[in-house]
Amino acid sequence: MPKNTDTETPGNSAPALRRAIQILDAVSQLPTPPTFTEIVTKLGLPKSSAHGLCAALVDLGMLIRTDAGTYRVGTRVMSWANAFLSQTGLVEEFQRLLQDRRELRDFTVTLTVLDGQQVVYVACSNSKAALGFTFRIGMRLPAPFTATGKAILSTLNDEEICRRFNTGWPQRLTANSVASLESLLQELALARQRGYSVDDGQVREGMFCIGAPVHDFSGQVVAGLAVSMLEQEATESTRDMIGSKLVDIAASLSARLGRVVSH
Hints:
Arc Repressor Mutant, subunit A, 2 domains, 6-stranded antiparallel beta sheet, HTH-type transcriptional repressor AllR, transcription regulation, DNA-binding, transcription
């Protein structure tokens, strides 16, 4: 159980604010709205301070307390998320690109950014095909299991990747989810060779995803772009064809963000 103290150090300033953010993270990431007891237990927070923080977050519209006594994310958080999306050209250019490039119109296309050990979905274009899984803006998934996460991680060196996961490995989502850091590094080496990454049923069994990194004007990776399809659609020839097109489209998106590649 994590320990929480009110001691303020250079690496732990504004402890009350940090606890409030921990609470918001927990409520947003848990599969069902948690009770107060579940929040306290998960985070190892003192009940007295946690009670005051939850009450303040409700008052500020950051959390909503339901009649059942559980907590869910409030509408104020959504206004911040919308502000983030409106202030970045990444999502806007992604949407424009999908209108201009129709090669992937029959597939689900997603865009994510890396946040710690997870990816956050900032844009989605879900196809009509029944994948058995619906991507949503704001959704978080473990980066090592997703095609976009692998695509972003493949641009980092192994030392950086090891540091990112030195606190533990995420819980597997399916039996196919990559089980260790060593296995992930092997997957990323292969992704670098072929130019795109693969999620072969690691997020949901029966779903196959291909990912490619997106860079900004400075060459820094800023996002991952992915195409999702049913596993039976992902023949070897289809994978190569979609992978090649996705890499080209990711390069086009990078160019829209100002990246210039010298030849």
